[in-house]
Amino acid sequence: MISPSDVIKLRIPYPDKSAELAKRTHMYVCAKKHGDDKFLLSCQTFKPHHALKRVPKVILKVDSSDTGHPFKVPTTISCDTFFKVEQIVLPNSLLCNPSSLNADIFGRLQQNLQHGPSITSINSSWLMQVDNEVRRHNTP
Questions:
Q1: How much is the pTM?
Q2: Three-class SS state of 98
C-alpha cells in the first residue's frame, strides 16, 4: 500500500477518461493520506518556461543530481492541486525505484503545501478503467 512520500506511476482520468493523463502513466507523489484516501501531486519534467510563467504557481523543483528520489531528469512537483483518490487501493506494483522521496525533499514539499492546495477528486470508477492495477478497498 502506498504511503506519504512514495512516488508512483499511474494513469489518472483527469479531466475525463479520454484525457492525456489517462492514456500514459505519469509520476505522482503521495503527499498525505487520510484513512483510505490518498492525496497525490503531479510530477513533470522541468520546463524553464513554466518557471517564467509561474504555471503551476507553487512548485518544488528536484534536480536529477540530488539523491533520494526516482527522477532521472530535473523534475517539478506541482503543489497547486491535490488529486484526491478515494477508497482505492494503490498497490506497491505502482511504486517507482527508488520508491519514495527522502526526508529532506519530502520536508521541503510539505513546506510548499502550507498555502493549502486545491483538491480535485478523481472518479474512482474511471480510475479503475484506465489503470487495471488499482481496485476498490474491500474487494478481492
A1: 0.92
A2: strand
Dihedral of alpha carbons 83, 89, 95, 100, sign? positive
Q: Where are the domains of the chain?
A: 6-136
The CATH architecture that domain 6-136 belongs to is: Roll (3.10)
Measured CA angle at 100 (ends 140, 18), to 5 deg: 60
Cβ contacts of 5 within 8 Å, gap of 6 or more = 29, 30, 100, 101, 103, 106
pLDDT tens sequence for the chain (140 residues): 899 999 999 999 999 999 988 999 999 999 999 998 999 999 999 887 766 666 678 889 999 888 899 999 999 999 999 999 999 999 999 999 999 999 999 999 999 999 899 999 999 999 999 999 999 877 55
Omega prior to 13 cis, within 30 of 0? no
